[in-house]
Amino acid sequence: MKENRTKTKGRIALFLLCLLVFGTFFACASGAGEPAGTEEVSAVTEAATGEETEAETEPPEAEEPARPVSVLFIGNSHTYFNDMPAIFGRIAKADGRKISVKSVTKGGWTLEKHADKSDECGAEVDRLLRNERFDYVVLQENSDVFMSSKYYPERYKAAVRSLAARIRENGAVPVLYSTWGNRLSENKMDTGKTTTLAKRNTMIARELDAPVAYAGFAFMKVYADPANTVNLHYTDDHHPSPAGSYLAAMTIYAAVFPDADVRTISYRGTIPEKTAAALKNAAYETMKDPSAYFG
Predict the structure, then answer these.
(1) In whole angstroms, what is the distance from residue 106 CA to residue 135 CA?
(2) Residues 134 and 71 sit within 8 Å (Cβ to Cβ)
(3) Predicted confidence band of residue 295 (pLDDT cuts 50, 70, 90)
(4) Is residue 194 within 8 Å of residue 216, measured between CB atoms?
């Protein structure tokens, strides 16, 4: 019995020893092949890596294209002759700007009519200012009516103030387009009328803190050159010729974008290169220092 108990104890001891040895082996084997927590960590790493890869390879969001600069022209035949707003647009594009140009014009119309919402053109001006966004609105007055004491200053100023207030409400800047007097003879024009128009535009512009495009002064500068052979007036000696509209557009462009050097702009349409260079220089010099012409 004693011997049997001893054998039994021995067998139990041997069995326990085997369990201890083999149990430790299996645990180390599984741990060696797959350390504790490796599967879970690997899954998290893959998820994180996948997110990083997606973020790195996903194309960047496309930036919204810059909105074109939007310009509205309001005036009469001194604006629409030779489609001057379109010339302005081509100048801007040649200068590398995205531009959108619209116009409301009618022969003989005054700014008073354009300010009147019951007028056909005034209603269109009102619709555009309420429904579309502009950056600049160019205002051109009837040059003959502008000289009338029945119209200037009360009716003119009331019209410009009304339009300017609505233009500002739209978020745009009003720009006054100062035109010119008639051509009198070769290389001679009515400088007195041209200067008066400029002074009257300047007075209201100072009140409204608005720029003035002195196209009339640019005309004067060209005609003052004894070597000039360019006729800036149409055959009626009143409206602009194609060269006159080109010069007006360049002058307005210099007023709207004072950072631009119009002398370097390549667009010249059908204007001969030498003539275009002279007209661009006249626009540049005039807008650089218009005060020189007031005397």
Answers:
(1) 22
(2) yes
(3) confident
(4) yes
Distance CA 207, CA 188 (A): 32
Question: What share of the chain in percent tops pLDDT 70?
Answer: 78
- The Cα–Cα gap between 142 and 188 comes to 21
Look at the domain 69-293 and name its fold.
Rossmann fold (3.40.50)
CA distance 29 to 160: 93
Amino acid present at 253 = Y
Encode the chain in three state secondary structure: CHHHHHHHHHHHHHHHHHHHHHHHHHHHHHHHHCCCCHHHHHHHHHHHHHHHHHHHHCCCCCCCCCCCEEEEEEECHHHHHHHHHHHHHHHHHHCCCCEEEEEEECCCCCHHHHHCCCCHHHHHHHHHHHHCCCCEEEEECCHHHHCCCCCCCHHHHHHHHHHHHHHHHHCCEEEEEECCCCEEECCEECHHHHHHHHHHHHHHHHHHCCCEEEHHHHHHHHHCCCCCCCCCECCCCCCECHHHHHHHHHHHHHHHCCCCCHHHCCCCCCCCHHHHHHHHHHHHHHHHCHHHHCC
CA torsion sign for 149, 153, 159, 164 is: positive
Structural domain boundaries in the chain:
2-57, 69-293
Question: What per-residue confidence (pLDDT) applies to 16?
Answer: 44
Q: At what angle do helices 242-256 and 273-288 cross, to 10 degrees?
A: 40
Q: What is the pLDDT of residues 220-276, one digit of tens each?
A: 999 999 999 999 999 999 999 999 999 999 999 999 999 999 999 999 999 999 999
Contacts of 204 (CB under 8 A, 6+ apart): 156, 157, 160, 161, 176, 210
Q: Write down the pLDDT at residue 91.
A: 98
